[in-house]
Amino acid sequence: MVAEAFEFVAVPFNSDGWGPPDASDVSSSASSTSVAAANLLPNVPFASFSRSDKLGRVADWTRNLSNPSARPPTGSKSDPSAVFDFSAFAIDEGFGLTSSGGNPDEDAAFRLVDGKPPPRPKFGPKWRFNPHHNRNQLPQRRDEEVEAKKRDAEKERARRDRLYNNNRNNIHHQRREAAAFKSSVDIQPEWNMLEQIPFSTFSKLSFTVQEPEDLLLCGGLEYYNRVFDRTTPKNERRLERFKNRNFFKVTTSDDPVIRRLAKEDKATVFATDAILAALMCAPRSVYSWDIVIQRVGNKLFFDKRDGSQLDLLSVHETSQEPLPEAKDDINSAYSLGVEAAYINQNFSQQVLVRDGKKETFDEANPFANEGEEIASVAYRYRRWKLDENMHLVARCELQSVAELNNQRSFLTLNALNEFDPKYSGVDWRQKLETQRGAVLATELKNNGNKLAKWTAQALLANADMMKIGFVSRVHPRDHFNHVILSVLGYKPKDFAGQINLNTSNMWGIVKSIVDLCMKLSEGKYVLVKDPSKPQVRIYEVPPDAFENDYVEEPLPEDEQVQPTEENAEGAEASVAAAKETEDKKADEAQA
């Protein structure tokens, strides 16, 4: 076998730079060089290309060869054995490849080639039977159709969510108004409305008072137990019940010390810290409340009714999530208020050191009888100067005392209660240890008025520290048993700045109400927060109003009867007997 001779092609040298030289610089005597220059890349025909052009396939590896008997003749365009298909390209005379995208037949037969499996639907059968479908071909991927269906489904889901939220907001708005529509006091037709003050005017008020004067300090305080500062959800403490300790909620005019100070003409306006805090934080309130105002001579007394809303603690007052409307429901506003009051009383006594050591003051507790066990509380009577001829005396409460930096510091003790995490959206047991800021922010949103009133009371009493406990139910449906998850401490002035509580605005509200009431004639009046509008009204009432009111006080927890089958049968029997008696009386009245 004779091997063919291999011809060496002369490679021209470019002295001017990189790449082949220009054709004019190449010697005409080199014929092979002329042929090579003629076939250089710039002389190859170029077909324009854009991303929208359809290019034929060179090789198709997706054809199904499972049915060899049905193969068309070899060499035809539809021959499945022809893996390599160059029919989409044409070779011109200059040995350049051009696209045959201009052929309409090729455009009609064009399809994407993708070796990836088609997307599997989440629901329904994988493939539907189609008798017209070519068995030799797999189902085609339709990414655009799948994406379009996803977009349509997402739009439909968003539309349903928007409709659901709108309906929910409307229902919440109706339920919130219905729940808060009832006034804290029944407005009688013979009452005369004198003033109607919207809350928008309160935000513009400002008044600066001087440092108050301490007139008297009564009662006794036990020391705070610092062990509770280390309480966490992992080592929670069971909330105990203090059944034998007495707590007093005495109104202003029934306080013997205030009566004595009024007789000595120490001031012209008298109130308690709870009543002043309700006035100072009135723009934050949502539920209805009322304050009885008595003008006696040149004296003004701010009182509360027996069983007033001020004796209870509101829960979820400023929340957007509506509470159950039924009064018997354990998560209704009334039931939660009673539960919160008991939690605060028990918490304020449990976090104390029980060694018998007690800090005593000028006088004993003015409301306690000899021999009875009373709660740790001190009453601080303080006097503020409102103007040259008017002073205000208020009774302020302190719950504990502690030694901080070798100095005696007074504390106020309060507790927030969690009843069901689904209402607040934050589970204290999971978030309280790692995200205390988020938990406190949620409570400020849901219980802003209550926290503001606690802060105002601490400022009025000149407390050095306010301790706030986080108490939760053992189980969301068990409103008798609770656990202490954590205890946090704040300085009242710093905490007031955090919750945007302006002391000048607080005293501006009090000063405006006092000035308005001092212009009234002698008599009895009631200031009522409107249940459905952000405003307060002042009514003139008869002198004997609220004196014969009977208020059903909630039973203590130990006296509340647990629901059992026997109790239920007994209750049904009692109701039936009462109904029979009423029917007999009605028959006799008709006769």
UniProtKB/TrEMBL annotation:
Pfam family for this entry, one: eIF-3_zeta
List, as start-end ranges, the regions of compositional bias called Acidic residues: 548-560
- Region annotation Disordered: residue ranges? 113-159, 548-591
Q: What is the protein's quaternary organization?
A: Component of the eukaryotic translation initiation factor 3 (eIF-3) complex.
Relate the protein's function as given in its record.
mRNA cap-binding component of the eukaryotic translation initiation factor 3 (eIF-3) complex, which is involved in protein synthesis of a specialized repertoire of mRNAs and, together with other initiation factors, stimulates binding of mRNA and methionyl-tRNAi to the 40S ribosome. The eIF-3 complex specifically targets and initiates translation of a subset of mRNAs involved in cell proliferation. In the eIF-3 complex, eif3d specifically recognizes and binds the 7-methylguanosine cap of a subset of mRNAs.
Domain remarks in the Swiss-Prot or TrEMBL record:
The RNA gate region regulates mRNA cap recognition to prevent promiscuous mRNA-binding before assembly of eif3d into the full eukaryotic translation initiation factor 3 (eIF-3) complex.
Family membership: Belongs to the eIF-3 subunit D family.
Protein name as it appears in the record = Eukaryotic translation initiation factor 3 subunit D
Q: What is the organism of origin for this protein?
A: Arabidopsis thaliana x Arabidopsis arenosa
Q: Which lineage do the record's taxonomy fields give for this organism? A: Eukaryota, Viridiplantae, Streptophyta, Embryophyta, Tracheophyta
